[in-house]
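Form P-L/3: holo structure prediction, ligand flavin-adenine dinucleotide.
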Amino acid sequence: MKISQIFEQCKPVISFEIFPPKQTTSIESIYSTIDALAPLSPDFISVTYGAGGTTRGNTVQIASVLQNRYNITPLAHLTCVGATRDSMSQILKELEDEGVENILALRGDLPEGAILGDFNYGSDLVSYIKQNGKFDVAAACYPEKHIEALTMEEDLARLRHKTACGTDVLISQLFFDNEVFYKWRDYVRSMGIHTPIVAGIMPITSAKQLKRMVTLCGASIPVTIQGLVKAYHHNAQALKEAGIAYATMQIIDLLASGVDGIHLYTMNQADIAKRIMENIRGINYAVKTKRV
Ligand code: FAD
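OUTPUT (holo model):
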């Protein structure tokens, strides 16, 4: 199913992100993760793509398995990094042949010395995919601005352009402070951008993971999280439990705010996704509405 149809049918939409196993690991290892995620009935599952195409084949294969074996709507990530028009055309054909209808179009994080090919920005890829197939296209957005953007105004002008290129759905970078998200979302709506916005939530599982993510994307860390990490950084189990509880509260608050969707960065840890989904099940059921 196309993701725009999912958003037309119900609100909020709940989705998961998974990543292909490292090249040294068998692709089969992801299937036990999907086996555990499938009963949680996500509206779609997105599959990341190694910038530069390192796991390209795996992204297509996993998206295909989601579609054809699990009957779960897949959203395949693709990046500009290292892509040419020819390579993009080929991968779009592969996805189409597998029945995959949705793509998350990204520039990709630029590895040291990386060269961009025929596409420089996420918006270039959105335009190309919209003009070269029947795909629904999602794109990324940044409630705390993209780390390379000099100002929020500049980043929002780029976002406006990205939506004008035909983006069907926006998925946000992870954030830990809902108030920051609400303020940003209100501003985006005031700009006349009405594309559905899905809130990206990543449960904290370790101090190391938090540090890595924050370095990569620049998300701000609220005082509460700083306190949790300080108190529990030597106790992995306690920090994981605190991370699940914090993500649960974030999601409950987002659902109360009428968010269009929640995208859970699962990090392939199905047990954590399961705990969070169990925590929010009653509320999600109560607020989920069919659109007419
Ligand atoms: P863009 O929209 O191209 O923006 C990048 C920067 O350029 C921004 O600072 C923007 O303000 C600026 N900009 C945009 N357009 C223009 C323009 N026309 N002129 C000048 N400046 C411009 N990375 C991966 O490698 N693989 C993945 O699978 C992956 N999945 C992700 C999923 C989500 C939901 C998110 C939020 C991110 C994901 N990323 C992934 C990371 C993403 O690739 C990086 O954040 C990357 O640095 C930016 O990608 P983008 O498409 O948002 O960039």
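COMMENT: The CA atoms of residues 22 and 55 lie 8 Å apart.
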